[in-house]
Amino acid sequence: MIIAVDGPSAAGKGTLARGLALHLGYHFLDTGALYRMVGLQMLRTQTDFTDVAKATAFARDLNVDDFEDHELRSEVVGSAASKVAVIPEVRSALLKFQRDFAKRLPGAVLDGRDIGTVICPSADVKFYITASVEARVLRRFKELQGLGIANSLQDVTADIKARDDRDASRSTAPTLAAADAIVVDTSHLGVEEALELALGAIKAKFAI
Ligand code: DC
Q: Domain tally for the chain?
């Protein structure tokens, strides 16, 4: 069973995907963390974002044990991730890991931008999670505050808008709802409501 959860930054897809995985006893992969790790390596080594060879090498040599690195969650690293994510070679280097992960039993929930369209086009259930820019900015602002990472509301707004533009306009695997995705707007939904709605859709489809 493969569940794809796609959508723009801070729409609530990570929280929903994690909740689904926990509820259903499935494996969970935050694919954004893969791009964030590559972005973080680029920043740490002061590598220019036009250096395709270096970025691709970082993507090939990822150490998934670094997944819990606190620095990964910052907006600076989010922007860096969005920049390396436009490089087709980086995306190709991360493809196999994601597809292999998706095959884990009894099931897997993957969240990202291109799960339902490119990574797992035949996923059993696809969600596209979206929300207004205002709602997403506020959520990200609070999330960063909770992590002790200081950012002004203005900076978070600018970062989210820039990331939206870059992620949606790139030529390889842009942020896109798959034609068969269930679209959920979480602007006015709480975490539990969104989870219930998604679980309801899965149960209705598979009678589980
Ligand atoms: O979901 P996130 O904010 O952690 O993702 C960080 C960046 O990584 C995002 O701006 C675009 C990129 N990304 C991607 O291109 N494809 C994915 N499947 C996941 C993330």
A: 1
For residue 167, the ligand 1 atom closest to its alpha carbon is: 11
Residue 204 lies in a domain: no
pLDDT in tens, 7-45: 999 999 999 999 999 999 999 999 999 999 999 999 999
Q: Is residue 206 part of a domain?
A: no
Q: Is residue 175 part of a domain?
A: yes
Which CATH number goes with the domain that contains 137?
3.40.50.300
Three-state SS string over the chain comes to CEEEEECCCCCCHHHHHHHHHHHHCCEEEEHHHHHHHHHHHHHHCCCCCCCHHHHHHHHHCCCHHHHHCHHHHCHHHHHHHHHHCCCHHHHHHHHHHHHHHHCCCCCEEEEECCHHHHHCCCCCEEEEEECCHHHHHHHHHHHHHHCCCCCCHHHHHHHHHHHHHHHHHCCCCCCCCCCCCEEEECCCCCHHHHHHHHHHHHHHHHCC
Q: Which of residues 128 and 146 earns the better pLDDT score?
A: 128
Q: Summarize pLDDT for 50-76 with one digit per residue, the tens.
A: 999 999 999 999 988 777 777 898 889
CA of 34 to the centre of ligand 1 (A): 8
Q: Which residues constitute the domain of residue 63?
A: 2-187
Nearest CA owner, ligand 1 atom 20: 32
By most ligand atoms within 8 Å of CB, the mutation choice from 43, 82, 109, 140 for ligand 1 is 82
* Cβ of residue 123 lying under 6 Å from some atom of ligand 1: no
